[in-house]
Structure formats: structure tokens, C-alpha cells
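TL;DR need C-alpha cells for one chain.
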Amino acid sequence: MSGLLVVTAVEAERAAVLAGLAAVDAAIEVRAVGVGPAAAAAGTAWLLARASFSAVVCAGIGGGFADRVTPGGLALASESVAADLGAESPDGFLPLDRLGFGTVRYPADPALLAALQEQLPEAVTGPVLTVSTVTGSAASTAALRDRYPDAVAEGMEGFGVAAAADRAGVAFAELRAISNAVGPRDRSAWRIAAALAALTSAAPALARLDP
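>> reply
TL;DR here they are.
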């Protein structure tokens, strides 16, 4: 297999990536597959089943943990973590792996991650959490930080894309441009335009990968 697939959630993210690739005249397959881990997994699996790719990058905007990466910045996933996949218990949240039903973590491909780090030295690297519900309160933010103290950002698709890539035997990485701080929901503080611009600026790095 050869070639790179870039997966986004929505068309605005896809357009931002394509704008950055156009600036370096790069022809890379970029597809929007939908919001959330289920849509991301299904859409990515469908694409991987119909064409030959050796790597897939989940790219889009997301929330950053304020002490790690701020709006307008970039985050690279060392691993994509299904942060809310599990069960509640009287003793607290039990992730799926502790229940014995599978994994909640997919590491980024080391070579792909290293190449992205070299091309995007300003990006902060660490676990990126995949959530089905965007974090919007101080209490839920504190709970996430308690469970995943080294997390740098959250999104809604990375784990789904990673699961599809893992099943297909394809290298995986995740790139997030930060639009807001993870925490109490305040749309007036979101910087979506700045995050999309950062995604466009970062996209040429994808053209320099050799998956």
C-alpha cells in the first residue's frame, strides 16, 4: 500500500486542510467523515476498504487543556484515548480496558509522529482524548484531568479513526488545531477561525510525510 489519507470531521476542516495543501501543490486524499467516534470509525473504515493507503491522519480542530496548549496552537497525539468509554461505579469511572472489554488507547505510529514533530516543532505532543460529549463544565474538566493528567487536548474523532486504521493495518496519527480551552462552555471565547487558520498553516507538513 502507499499514500496518505487525511480524515476530518466536517467540511470546514477539510477545506482548511485542502487550502494548506494547495499552497504547496500537494495532491492528497482529504475526506470529511462526520462528527464523533462512531461516524469517524465507520467513515474511515469505508475509505480504507475502497482504496490503498499506508497511513491515515485524523486532522481537525479541538479543545486544548489550558496549561498545555492554547487557542491557535497545535497538538499532536502521542496516543488517542477514548476518555469516556467505560462504566460508572460507586468508586468512580472504570475505563473499558479495566473492565476487560478492549482497549481505550491507540498509540500514534512512531515514525509518522516523529515526522510530524519534525515538520511542526511548535506543536505540543501528548495524549489527545476522544469524547462523545464535548467537555463543558469545571467538574467534568477536573474529572478528565484526574484520569488523564498528561492529556493535552480533546476531540471527538481520533479514537474512531485510530480503531479503523488499526483494524486495516494502517499507520495512524492525529493532529489538532486548538479552538478553545477545555472547560466551562463559553462560545464567545472560542477561536474557531484562528484554529482553522492554524490547520491550514499546518497542512503543508502533511505533504512532506512519506508514509
